[in-house]
């Protein structure tokens, strides 16, 4: 009952239609015979979750024991563990390079992650306990962000990079994670919207710079994903606010940039979400427009016309997606 | 019975297989381009984002069409509102057939019409008969019909739910047999469906349905586990049989359920590895996690944070041991990357996942939480890819 990788009948049919020659078929048969069942991604994900579980648990323990006698013990245990993580990571690291550098053993990536998470916990904790920066967490976030950026670039670690970006966002006062976006926490005030815009654009500028100078160019996807969602949500919030007209040119610029960019790197997820935010934005504007003009039979007219509007937009999207897919398929990888 | 032209369907699946071959590097990009250029294609979206996007657009379209028609029609029918849902179902079905004529297949748009047609009809029947059983029977029949005719996996899943629901309903409300047998019936049903589907998938000519079969297999694995899970059994027997469980009494055959709560996931694990079937393996992981949850639901050993730390360490240890075991194997079960493995994709996924996990406190909050630990309900994470 072993599961094979390819369907026998489809392979035969492809062969009949002369898309596959004898050599290809033979190669496939040899491969299938090996019965390769790679658990690499699964095991690495397991490690990832174990790290997240462990550090989250430590975080909660530290938080709960803040006023108890054992806090110094916990603090030092945390610190020592962090040092151990970084000691081994530095020992095994190949040193910094602008290109992609990988550990020979992928487990070290997770050691680096553990170290960084513990370091963030440590920083937050000593700030709370000894009030180095008053009550404010902004500076702790900034320091965590700087530390994580250093670690991410030195060890070439994308997971730590995303931690760094979230910390940076926390520094300017917004909690951005998909969770908070869905809970509508992100735009509590217009000022935050503007700072979100600034951060998003800053990330994009840095991404463009690093793509040009080839400083860890493969980080671009993390930056782009982050900036896309941050900017998208901020623009939506802006369009719903009083100063919505300010955001129209920003929306246009946003759509234009990510349209071009997703063609450049051929990233489907960026393209899809660009379309989503763009369409939302346009619909918000249409809604505002309809709200301003109002005449008799108006609502019925809108309802009668709306199917055509939706059909038109579906047609438009199908064409866009088709073009994008054609471009993606034509690219020689 | 199938709504699609046979050779077009075949071409679609051949192109899909060619894509798979390309991912595993048996075909060059040039060869793949030849394949997709020569095979006339059905309009479909293999990318999940596009498919979901078009699914939403399809729903907009359907609801705007329906509301446009309703504006006129609602003035005519004011009394018989029950008809409305049947009317929706008919509109959706006509739309679906039109889309199929236009060669939409697994595109998103067709999915929207397909699901709306089924769900509106179910609601209509529910309103008309005011009983569960007819709805469930329709669910089963319709689901099978749509799954076969339109090669749709979600319909098959609906049919499966309908089937399970029928048994559940018959036993609970119509007292065909003692309610206590419910969980055994569930297990039996799961086993029957599983092996029936496995039997079907042995026939290579059913290749268009292979995805559907896989989904049904996972569904029946989960059903089999849930009907034997201690938490489910206990909660159901408390609410259906009015059992009160104290410190001294427990559900009948409690020990069986305790043992199976952990034995079945381990069995899935073992079989998943033996059959080299990732779906069975993932079911094992999922059910094992639920097993631990169910025990913790009733027995309080440690506070949650200690559980997290300890389970993190254990999980790490387990994964590490397995990796050490598999490190040097190049055939069979292995830690080596497969031909199609994409390291960059995995790293990006985790990077985005950790965005979802990170509960970074805003400075305005006075919550001295850690940065980036926090709750780990990464539910929203999937949206990113």
Automatic annotation (TrEMBL), chain A:
Xref: InterPro entries: DUF2157 (IPR018677)
Supply the Pfam families for this chain. DUF2157
The name of this protein is DUF2157 domain-containing protein
The residues forming the signal peptide are: none
Is Cell division a UniProt keyword of this protein?
no
Keyword Membrane in annotation: yes
Record-annotated DUF2157 domain positions? 14-160
Provide the alphabetized UniProt keywords. Answer: Membrane, Transmembrane, Transmembrane helix
Transmembrane segments annotated in the record for this chain: 43-63, 69-90, 110-130, 136-155, 160-177, 189-207, 219-238, 244-263, 270-291, 297-318
Annotated organism of origin: Flavobacterium tibetense
Automatic annotation (TrEMBL), chain B:
- Source domain of life is Bacteria
**Segments traversing the membrane:** 48-77, 83-100, 112-129, 156-174, 180-201, 253-272, 279-300, 306-323
Name the keywords, alphabetized.
Membrane, Transmembrane, Transmembrane helix
Indicate yes or no for the key word ATP-binding.
no
Identification of the protein by name: DUF4401 domain-containing protein
Which organism is this protein's natural source? Answer: Flavobacterium tibetense
Q: Taxonomic lineage of this organism?
A: Bacteria, Pseudomonadati, Bacteroidota, Flavobacteriia, Flavobacteriales
């Amino acid at each position: 009952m072993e599961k094979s990788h390819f369907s026998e009948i489809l392979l035969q049919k492809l062969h009949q239609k002369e898309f596959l020659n004898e050599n290809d078929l033979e190669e496939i048969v040899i491969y299938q015979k090996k019965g390769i069942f790679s658990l690499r991604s699964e095991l690495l994900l397991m490690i990832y979750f174990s790290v997240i579980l462990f550090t989250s648990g430590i975080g909660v323990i530290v938080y709960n024991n803040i006023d108890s006698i054992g806090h110094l013990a916990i603090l030092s245990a945390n610190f020592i563990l962090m040092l151990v993580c970084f000691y081994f990571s530095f020992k095994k690291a190949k040193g910094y390079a602008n290109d992609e550098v990988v550990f020979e053993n992928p487990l070290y990536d997770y050691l680096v992650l553990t170290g960084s998470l513990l370091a963030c916990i440590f920083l937050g904790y000593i700030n709370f306990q000894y009030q180095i920066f008053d009550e404010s967490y902004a500076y702790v976030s900034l320091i965590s962000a700087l530390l994580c950026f250093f670690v991410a670039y030195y060890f070439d670690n994308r997971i730590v990079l995303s931690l760094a970006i979230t910390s940076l966002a926390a520094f300017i006062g917004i909690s951005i994670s998909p969770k908070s976006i869905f809970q509508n926490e992100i735009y509590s005030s217009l000022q935050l919207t503007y700072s979100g815009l600034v951060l998003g654009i800053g990330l994009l500028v840095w991404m463009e710079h690093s793509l040009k100078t080839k400083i860890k160019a493969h980080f671009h996807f993390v930056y782009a994903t982050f900036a896309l969602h941050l900017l998208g949500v901020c623009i939506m919030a802006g369009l719903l606010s009083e100063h919505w007209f300010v955001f129209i040119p920003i929306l246009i610029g946003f759509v234009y940039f990510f349209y071009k960019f997703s063609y450049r790197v051929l990233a489907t997820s960026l393209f899809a979400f660009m379309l989503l935010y763009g369409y939302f934005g346009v619909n918000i504007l249409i809604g505002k427009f309809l709200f301003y003009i109002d005449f008799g039979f108006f609502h019925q007219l809108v309802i009668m016309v709306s199917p055509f509007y939706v059909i038109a937009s579906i047609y438009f999207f199908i064409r866009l997606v088709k073009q994008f897919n054609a471009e993606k398929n034509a690219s020689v990888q | 019975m199938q709504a699609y032209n046979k050779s077009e369907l075949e071409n679609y699946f051949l192109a899909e297989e060619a894509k798979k071959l390309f991912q595993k590097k048996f075909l060059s990009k040039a060869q793949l381009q030849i394949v997709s250029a020569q095979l006339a294609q059905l309009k479909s979206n293999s990318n999940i984002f596009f498919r979901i996007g078009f699914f939403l657009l399809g729903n907009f379209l359907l609801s705007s069409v329906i509301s446009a028609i309703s504006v006129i029609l609602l003035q005519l029918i004011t009394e018989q509102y029950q008809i409305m849902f049947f009317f929706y179902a008919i509109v959706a079905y006509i739309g679906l057939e039109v889309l199929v004529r236009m060669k939409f297949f697994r595109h998103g748009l067709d999915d929207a019409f397909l699901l709306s047609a089924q769900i509106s009809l179910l609601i209509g029947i529910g309103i008309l008969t005011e009983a569960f059983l007819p709805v469930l029977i329709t669910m089963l029949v319709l689901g099978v019909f749509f799954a076969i005719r339109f090669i749709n996996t979600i319909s098959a899943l609906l049919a499966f739910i309908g089937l399970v629901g029928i048994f559940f309903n018959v036993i609970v409300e119509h007292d065909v047999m003692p309610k206590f047998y419910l969980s055994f019936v569930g297990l039996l049903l799961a086993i029957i469906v599983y092996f029936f589907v496995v039997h079907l998938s042995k026939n290579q000519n059913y290749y268009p349905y292979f995805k559907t079969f896989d989904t049904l297999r996972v569904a029946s694995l989960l059903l089999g586990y849930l009907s034997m899970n201690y938490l489910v059994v206990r909660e159901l027997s408390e609410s259906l049989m009015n059992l009160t469980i104290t410190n001294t009494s427990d559900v009948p055959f409690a020990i069986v359920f305790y043992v199976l709560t952990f034995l079945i996931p381990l069995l899935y694990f073992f079989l998943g590895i033996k059959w080299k079937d990732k779906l069975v393996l993932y079911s094992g992981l999922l059910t094992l996690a639920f097993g631990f949850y169910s025990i913790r639901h009733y027995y309080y050993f440690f506070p949650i944070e200690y559980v997290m730390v300890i389970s993190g360490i254990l999980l790490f240890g387990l994964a590490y041991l397995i990796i050490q075991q598999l490190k040097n194997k190049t055939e069979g079960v292995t830690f080596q990357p497969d031909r199609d493995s994409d390291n960059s994709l995995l790293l990006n996924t985790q990077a985005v996942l950790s965005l979802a996990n990170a509960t970074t406190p805003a400075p305005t909050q006075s919550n001295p939480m850690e940065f980036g630990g926090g709750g780990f309900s990464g539910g929203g994470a999937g949206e990113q890819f």
